[in-house]
Amino acid sequence: MQDGNDKPLKDCVVVVTGASRGGGRGIAHELGAAGATVYVTGRSTRERPADTYARILALSGETTLPGSIDDTADEVTRAGGRGIAVRCDHTRDDDVAALFDRVRRDHGRVDLLVNNAWGGHEVFDGVFVAPFWERPLDQWDAMIDRGVRNHWLASRHAAPLMVAAKRGLIVTTTFWDRDRYLDGNLMYDLAKAAMTRLAFGMAQELKPHGVASVAVSPGWMRTEFILAGFKTDEAHWHEVPALARTESPRYLGRAVAALAGDVEVIAKTGRVVTVGELAREYGFTDVDGRQPVAFEMGTDA
């Protein structure tokens, strides 16, 4: 997909799921900056925000859900690509089928799917560490049924288009800490490990068709909810010592754009790669010019 100009992804057709805010928004922005046509999907529109975030909004001290697919699509276009907002509930097979039918009608193909839709934020209760027997049952539904399943379902609809074209890339956003256990958060650990394994398994079946599947693990991102939780914003986060190790969502976006522009990306299929490692390999930085190292739990790096 790389052609050496300042819009290396100008011919790339992309679907980014869960792109109203957070990592999905950062990914969509950077793909737009590289010239891609980006279908920005999720449930939050300007007129009708998703209504399942009351718990985390209360914990953050916020009353309004940040971001929408319309905002992100406009941002993609301003960055230099073409942003197309499509409301899609990624838990619903009919919604996801309609999304990919539209992409097929519009372009006849999809070059890149970024699986990012995630239900875990909807049930966050402010408890980071607790034994699994004290965790509420709805965390399974949110993280597995509205997390792992979302990734599988979108991939299921994208794969036939990629296989027919004998090319394509599926990126799965995950969290990976070198196979260590995320102590005190079994459900999150299980869900992210399942996503990583999903990316690996899909790679085995897609590789003979020339299609790659890669899991990408960012560090601690300064999402809208993280910034709200620390009572700051993107302009002032440097003033909060606890956020010193954070990355912007666009650092993850630059990692995905680099993978999409790599004509040899099939060599990475089946792997889980960190944003910090990709930054050094491909030579990109975060928005502030830093190049944060690959994130590890329990380090001061």
From TrEMBL:
Signal peptide coordinates: none
InterPro entries registered for this protein in UniProt: NAD(P)-bd_dom_sf, SDR_fam
Alphabetical list of Pfam families matching this protein: adh_short_C2 (PF13561)
Superkingdom field: Bacteria
PANTHER family: DEHYDROGENASE/REDUCTASE SDR FAMILY MEMBER 1 (PTHR44147), DEHYDROGENASE_REDUCTASE SDR FAMILY MEMBER 1 (PTHR44147:SF2)
The protein's name: SDR family oxidoreductase
